[in-house]
Amino acid sequence: MTRTTRIDGDGLPDSPGDGSLISSYQFELPSRLIAQEPAPERSASRCLFCSQNSADVVEAPFHTLVDRLVGDEILVVNDTRVLPARIRCRRQSGGAIEAFLLRPLGQGRWQSWLSPSRRIQAGEILETSGPPLKVIERRGSGWIVELGSEQVLEQIGEVPLPPYIERDEQDQRLQNLDPQRYQTIFARQPGAVAAPTAGLHFDDLLRSRLEEKGVQIVPITLHVGPGTFKPIEVDQIHQHRVDPEWYFVSEESRSALAMARADGRKIIAVGTTSLRVLESIGKIEEGPEIEAETALTILPGHPFEHVDGLITNFHLPRSSLLVLVCSFLGHLRTLSYYQRAIDLEMRFYSYGDCMAILPDEQTR
Q1: Exposed end of the chain (fewer CB within 10 Å): N or C?
Q2: Rounded alpha-carbon distances, angstroms, from residue 191 to 81, 164, 195, 224, 351
Q3: Within this chain, do residues 350 and 261 fall inside the same structural domain, yes or no?
Q4: Are 217 and 115 in contact (CB under 8 A)?
C-alpha cells in the first residue's frame, strides 16, 4: 500500500538558529515501535520516500525503490561485515563477564569493553567456550585483551546486537536469525561491531532488478564502531566530535564515482556510513585506492558536495546520526517526517523501517 502526504509547513527553510542545541533533536518514541526483529522479507520493509525540494512524502514498501529511480544512478553501499564481537566469559571465581571486542590491534590483541569491569585486574584469565581471554591492561574507558585471530572469534563470539534489542537466550528462532539478518547482502570485509543498517533492506532480487534497470551499485568500506550508539552529551552540538572510523575506497570504486560525476549522474548514499566516506575523500576523481580514518562530524551547515540522495534508517534521538540526517534534509523537515513515521506505526532503529531521500522528482 502506498500513501502520499504533504507535510504541513514543509518546503519552508529552517531558520539559521534551528538545530544548534542537542535538546532540539529529542523526540518521544513509543517503546512498541523499537524493532526487536527484522521484517520477514528484507525489501518488504516500509519506507518513507521524500526529496529535498518537495513537500510530498510517500510511504510504500522499500522494494518500490526500483520504480522511483531513473535508472542511471549510482548507489554507494558499505560492504563492511559485522564481527561476532560479543563474548560470554567467566572469571575463575565464577562471576560472569561479557566482553565486547571493538577493534583488532594486531598479534591477537583487541581493544574491548568488559562488563562488569569494576573488579577486573590486568593479567586475569577469563574462561570462554573456547580459548581463554587474557586481560592485558586498562586503556582509557576500556581494556586491551588477548584472544587470538578472527577465526577464534568466529568460533566463540555472538552477534553484537544494539542494546535496545532484547533477546531471550531460550528463543532459538531469533538466536538463529540474527547472524544472517544482522548482515547486509553486501557484507564482504570483516571489521564492524554494528551493521550499516540501511543496507539491511536490500535482498538479491531487488539488487538484480536495480542492476537490470541500469542502476550501478558501488561498494566502499567503513568499519562501523561502537560510537554509532553514543548520544551527544554536550548542549551545543558544534562542540561534539564523532569517534574515528577506518574506511577504504578501491581504485575501481573511485573510477565509477568519477565517471558518474562526469556524466551528471546522481549519487545516492546507502546509509550514513557511505555518506561520511563520500564526504571525507575530497574531490571525486580517478586515482589509487584510499585507506584512511575519518572523524568527519557532519553538523548543520555542512556543504554536501558528493551526495544527491540518502537511504537511511530511523535513528536514536540526540544521536550524531540523527543530526547528520537533519543536516542533509533540514532539521524541522526531518523531525516532521519522524513524527509522520511514528503516526504510521513504522518501526525504528537497526531492525526497523527506513526513509529514502531521493534526488528531486523521484519520490513518485
Answers
A1: N
A2: 6, 22, 10, 8, 20
A3: yes
A4: no
